[in-house]
Design brief:
Elements lengths: L19 H13 L3 H4 L5 H17 L2 E6 L4 E5 L3 H16 L3 H4 L2 H22 L6 H10 L6 H19 L6 H12 L19 E2 L6 E3 L7 H13 L9 H15 L6 H15 L10 H7 L1 H13 L5 H26 L2 H8 L6 H12 L7 H8 L3 H13 L3 E5 L5 E5 L1 H7 L1
Antiparallel strand pairs: 1-2, 3-4, 5-6
Helix pairs in contact: 4-15, 6-8, 6-13, 8-9, 8-12, 9-12, 10-11, 11-12, 11-15, 13-14, 13-15, 14-15, 16-17, 18-19
């Protein structure tokens, strides 16, 4: 990783002056909060250092200092420029008060989109950490409640359970005990038992560049972890008016801190993303639950890693990581809108099933899925998981479709059945 040039905080502006160039370069650099490795190529080599020094001077004037733990001097800086303010306003409007859940999503949509987003987030968060499987196989495992057959599937199932746990506990404060519970959930059956749900007890853990094998970060020593994580919990739970931090900014800082402190032997990345998700839900950003944030991160994994490194290298300037996370949330929201748009186009096909006598919304959805994929089969457990209903309700829904011969029931063993397209389906709907 290339380190930026040194500069003096009391030096005058050397490159950015009152000119058209000033506006162009400032906008180009600060709108994306570029690091030195990009800034140096914007102007001729002999001028690049002066441009960087000017940018650093402007950034420093905008810095706010945050103190996470005074005893071990864990502190950092961040700045919110006009470009970030605009992006935060956009997210505030669209994730909170701007669009009400009932206006954006119907009841049946909420079940469908929420289930899909939970699965997507679980799958892609695992893939960031090296899980190897296909989305089709992973979703089938989650929908049908199958047991994972390898570590990758176990990681995905763990993330799925973790997100469900967070959704149920989103209004609670964080404690070390809840941190341990999150870690237990994300690492179940993938880590030695003695390392599950406890802080690391050695300094053997290093953050490596996966390609070069280079050590890119040495976390704080393990004897500091109890104090640091106590401070982390206080920082998570408190946001006083006199030192207020915008919730999306703070969620990003919390995400960074888990990666930086690296309190666990393994599972730090999954824990960090889970807590990012938790903090946004806790602070009213309900739409977060419908997004696949990790899918965007996976597509930009190099940028994700660089956001960590640039922050640590450049004066613990968290702005790099905050800008990246805001970009991720914005893209995840755009992806959701595109997904909803595509599903809305299917409504005409879906509506014909809703018009059937004595067919409820869930049953109409099942029939729609059969039409989409005639080779797809269902289980009672899958219906229970998808619609968040009781086993008995799921069984009633699907058995009624069997009685109408829209589905047929195939025995697997004495207790289990699969449900496939029935004899009357094509005669009725094709």
């Amino acid at each position: 990783m290339e380190y930026p040039p040194e500069y003096s905080s009391d030096s005058p502006l050397l490159f950015l002056k009152e000119s058209a160039d000033n506006s162009y370069f400032y906008t180009r650099i600060e709108s994306e909060y570029l690091y030195w490795d990009k800034v140096k190529y914007l102007v001729p080599k002999e001028e690049s250092v002066n441009l960087w020094k000017d940018i650093k001077l402007i950034r420093r004037l905008n810095f706010k200092k945050i103190y996470i733990n005074n005893k071990f001097k864990l502190e950092a800086n961040y700045g919110i420029n006009d470009f970030l303010q605009q992006k935060l306003h956009y997210l505030d409007f669209n994730f909170g008060v701007g669009i009400q859940k009932e206006q954006l999503l119907s009841d049946i949509d909420k079940h469908r989109y929420l289930t899909n987003s939970l699965m997507e987030e679980s799958i892609f968060s695992s893939m960031i950490e090296g899980a190897t499987t296909t989305r089709i196989k992973a979703k089938e495992m989650l929908r049908k409640g199958k047991k994972p057959i390898n570590k990758s599937e176990q990681m995905i199932l763990n993330n799925y359970k973790t997100i469900q746990y967070i959704s149920e506990n989103k209004n609670n404060d964080i404690t070390k005990e809840r941190l341990f519970e999150i870690h237990k959930l994300v690492t179940e059956n993938t880590l030695e038992v003695e390392n599950v749900g406890v802080f690391r007890t050695s300094d053997d853990v290093k953050v490596m560049n996966q390609i070069t094998g280079e050590i890119v970060h040495n976390p704080p020593v393990f004897i500091q972890l109890e104090h640091l994580m106590d401070s982390f919990c206080v920082f998570f739970n408190e946001n006083p008016k006199e030192n207020f931090i915008h919730p999306i900014v703070k969620a990003s800082i919390l995400h960074f801190l888990i990666g930086y402190i690296h309190p666990f032997v393994d599972g730090n990345g999954r824990t960090a993303r889970a807590l990012f998700y938790w903090y946004l839900l806790k602070n009213g950003y309900w739409l977060t639950e419908y997004l696949s944030i990790s899918r965007v991160i996976l597509k930009s994994k190099t940028q994700y890693e660089k956001a960590y490194l640039h922050t640590e290298i450049d004066e613990m300037d968290l702005s790099y990581f905050i800008h990246y996370q805001v970009k991720v949330l914005t893209q995840a929201f755009e992806d959701l809108k595109e997904y909803i748009s595509s599903k809305k186009k299917e409504e005409n096909q879906f509506s014909k099933f809703l018009k059937l006598p004595n067919i409820n919304d869930r049953q109409a959805q099942i029939l729609f899925w059969v039409e989409e994929n005639p080779n797809r089969f269902f289980t009672v457990k899958e219906i229970e998981n998808i619609f968040k209903i009781t086993n008995q309700t799921a069984r009633t829904d699907i058995e009624e479709l069997v009685a109408l011969e829209y589905l047929k029931k195939i025995s697997i063993n004495k207790k289990s059945f699969n449900y496939w397209k029935g004899s009357k389906f094509d005669k009725t709907f094709l």
